[in-house]
Amino acid sequence: MGHIQVGINLEFVRHDDKGFEWAVEKAAAIGYEFVEPMVHWGRELLSEAGYFHSVSLLDDPYRVKRACARAGVRLSGLSSHTPLCKPEISLEYLKQALRFAAECGAPVVNTDEGPKPAWTSVEEDHVLMRYVLTEAAAVAEARGLKIGLEPHQQYSRTPAGLQRICGLVDSPALGVNFDTGNSYLAGQDPYSWLESVAERLVHLHAKDISLSQSQAERGAVSGTPVGCACGDGVIDWRRVIEICRAAQGSVVFSVECGTIEQAERSLAHLRALLS
Q1: Residue 75 carries which DSSP code?
Q2: Predicted confidence (pLDDT) at residue 1 exceeds the cutoff of 80
Q3: What is the per-residue pLDDT for 248?
Q4: Which parts of 20-105 fold into alpha helices (H)?
C-alpha cells in the first residue's frame, strides 16, 4: 500500500513579496512537513532582494538545506520547470538543478517539455527532448535522484503524449510528477490518468481547480500556475488518495495554491481525508 505525505510548493507565498527562508518558515508554521522550492538559473532582482521565494542555482545548496533544518521540514523535490524542447535553455539548467538537489537533499527534480520552438516539427521536438533527458538522466542516476515529468504543455496534455515523453529514454531516473489540476484542465479524466501512471509516480502536485476556472478554461489550456484550496474545487481528493494508496511506494502531495489562507485550508482538508 502506498504511503502519502503532504507538502507544499512555495508558490503559495508568491503574492506576499517575501523571500525563500520566510516561505519555508511559513510553511512549517502552517503545519506542512515537506516543501518544494522553485529554483532558477542565474540571478534575478526580486529573489536577490528577498521579495520572491525562488532560489538561484548559483547559490549554495546548503542554504536550502539549512533553512529546512531550522524550520523542521523536509524537501519533497525542486520545481525546476525548463523547456525540454529547447536544449539551449534546458540542458544545463536541468543538470545543474539535479546537482543542486543532490547537495540540498531533494529526491526529485520536477520539469516538463515547456513551450516548443515555433519552427520545429513534432518529431524534431521529441529528438530534442530525448537528447536533454538522456544527458539529465545520467546525472540523476549517478546521484540516486528522480526526474518528475509533469503533464503541463502541448505534448504532455494527454496520457499518450506524456507516456511518449517518458519512453524517450530507458532510465530508472525518469518518473511522473502528476498534476491533478493540469490534467483536468487539459480536458482529461485525471483519475484514470493517475491510475495509468501510478507505478511511475515520484511526486504529485495537489492542485484543485475552482468551478469558475473549470467552466472558463477546461479543454482550452494545458495547465495553470496554481489552483484554489484543495477541497474548494472540482477535484475528488478522496479518489486521488485511494488511487495513490493502492500503488506501491510513497509519494508526497505537494499542494499548489496561490495564498497562505488557501494553503491552510488545503492542509486541513487533506489531513482530514488521510486520517
Answers
A1: E
A2: no
A3: 84
A4: 20-30, 45-48, 61-71, 87-104
Place 209 in a pLDDT band, splitting at 50, 70 and 90: very high
Contact between residue 84 and residue 150 where contact means Cβ atoms under 8 Å apart: no
- How many angstroms separate the Cα of 210 from the Cα of each of 139, 149, 241? 38, 24, 19
Closest by CA position to 128, among listed 173, 80, 94: 94
Residue 234 DSSP label = S
Residues 6+ apart with CB under 8 A from 47: 19, 20, 40, 53, 54, 55, 56
SS3 (DSSP) at 66: helix
Report whether 265 contacts 232 (CB < 8 A): yes
Domains and CATH numbers, the chain: 3-274 (3.20.20.150)
206 closest CA partner among 271, 266, 272, 275: 266
